[in-house]
Amino acid sequence: MALVPDRAAWVQALCAAVDGPVAHLGCADSPYTASLMAAGILLHERLVGVAQVTGFDVDADSLALLCERMPDERFVVADVSAEVPATERGRYELVVAGEVLEHVPNADSFLVGCSKLLAPGGRLCVTVPNACSPKIGLRALAGRESVHPDHRVYYGPRTLERTLAGAGYELEEVASCFAPVAGRTGRLVVNPLLRAAHRLFQGPVGDGLIAVASARENPAAIAS
Asked: If we measure between CA atoms, which residue out of 160, 186, 182 comes closest to residue 173?
């Protein structure tokens, strides 16, 4: 398994290589939209610089901030778990769902909605926190859990692959990645140790997982 040092740069490069429109789900990264824009690290701003990207989000207020910041870009307020607008179906060569899947109440409904956005031969890129990260175990030994208040589930490489397969996808590649921001101990001690372990065992040592999958013919998506 590959170890990606910079998740945002990897996703940006993936989008840059796509010859066609890209859908970016959860593009506002609510509730951190304003702070990420102020810091210049909002992922969507990087993606629109390299590809033809439409931003999707369920949070209309946060999406309005992006519309104000990027008035020439295209945005859609939609929850693809519930309904995919007719104008967006079968339109995209790539759907990016970065740090979204762990938030949704129903992963199958969300992933089926993603498949409806894809053009024939299109691909889905999903990133999620990594349940197999050694850092989670280290925190557990210290008696604490560090988790986003809106996260509903953890994914490891195998459970992520099974979830994608159950929604009609075939996994093409998976990698682990380090978090973009880490404390001094993580940067200077833990991450170098994990890189060394990765060289030996090629395991999922990073804070997150990146998966790219292609959509098979999905009866659930067709029926709905």
From this structure: 160
Angle between helices 107-117 and 157-166 (to 10 degrees): 60
> How many other C-beta atoms can be found within 10 angstroms of the C-beta atom of residue 180?
14
How far apart (Å, rounded) are the C-alpha atoms in residues 189 and 13? 28
Which letter, b or e, does each residue of 152-177 get, where b requires 16 or more Cβ atoms within 10 Å of its Cβ? eebbebeebbebbeebbbebeebbbb
Query: Is 221:115 a contact under the CB 8 Å cutoff?
Result: yes
Indicate the pairing of strand 92-98 with strand 2-4: unpaired
Helix (H) or strand (E) holding 170: strand 169-177
For residue 87, give the DSSP letter. Answer: G
Question: What domains sit in the chain, N to C, each tagged with a CATH number?
Answer: 2-218 (3.40.50.150)
Paired tokens of 87: 């104008």
- Taking the CA of residue 35 as centre, how many other CA atoms within 13 Å lie in the half-sphere pointing to its CB? 4
Q: What percent of the chain stands above pLDDT 70?
A: 93
The reported pTM is 0.91
Per-residue pLDDT reduced to its tens digit, 6-39: 999 999 999 999 999 999 999 999 999 999 999 9
**Which residues does residue 59 pair with via DSSP β-bridges, in sequence order?**
none
User: For position 180, what pLDDT does the model report?
Assistant: 77
Task: Report residue 116 as tokens.
Answer: 């409806």
**196 phi and psi, to 5 degrees?**
-65, -40
Mean pLDDT calculated for residue range 86-93: 97
Q: How many CB atoms lie within 10 A of CB 111?
A: 28
